[in-house]
Amino acid sequence: TWTPVMKKYNSSNNTWVNATMADNGTVQIAKYVKVGRICTIYLHWDGWQQSDANYAVIGGLPFASMGSGGGHGTVSYTDAFTSNQNQGIYISTNTTLMQFYHSSNAWNGWSSSSNRNIHLGLTYQTA
Q1: Where are the beta strands (DSSP E) in the chain?
Q2: What is the pLDDT of residues 68-121, one digit of tens each?
Q3: For residue range 29-73, what is the model confidence (pLDDT) as tens digits?
Q4: Which of 6, 35, 51, 59 is deepest in the core (most CB within 10 A)?
Q5: 20: three-class secondary structure by DSSP
Q6: What does pTM read for this prediction?
């Protein structure tokens, strides 16, 4: 298993820190399979509410991504974003974070409404 963590961007020092959660909800599934340097994760998290994350980012991936980034994923269901629901999952270089973008290649934000849900799968190359 792995432990997903809502993150927010701290612009004062350009880092990611844990977002404030009004309700942590329940992580129904947070599993991964790693074969060699390829890691596939699954996440089903429901009932949560975050209070202050302006960028849609989940941290806590079980392994850091490889030096040149690389990965792809699909969000099969969510009501968690503030804008366009057509988003892609992006894994940047040497990180344990997945970031969400919408169709105009801009950051997606988390909704601060209660009882949010997300179901996703992601495959990426590890360091």
Answers
A1: 5-10, 15-18, 21-23, 26-35, 38-50, 57-59, 71-78, 87-90, 98-102, 106-107, 116-125
A2: 767 888 888 888 887 656 667 888 889 999 988 776 667 788 888 899 999 999
A3: 999 999 999 999 999 999 999 888 778 889 999 999 998 767 888
A4: 6
A5: coil
A6: 0.88
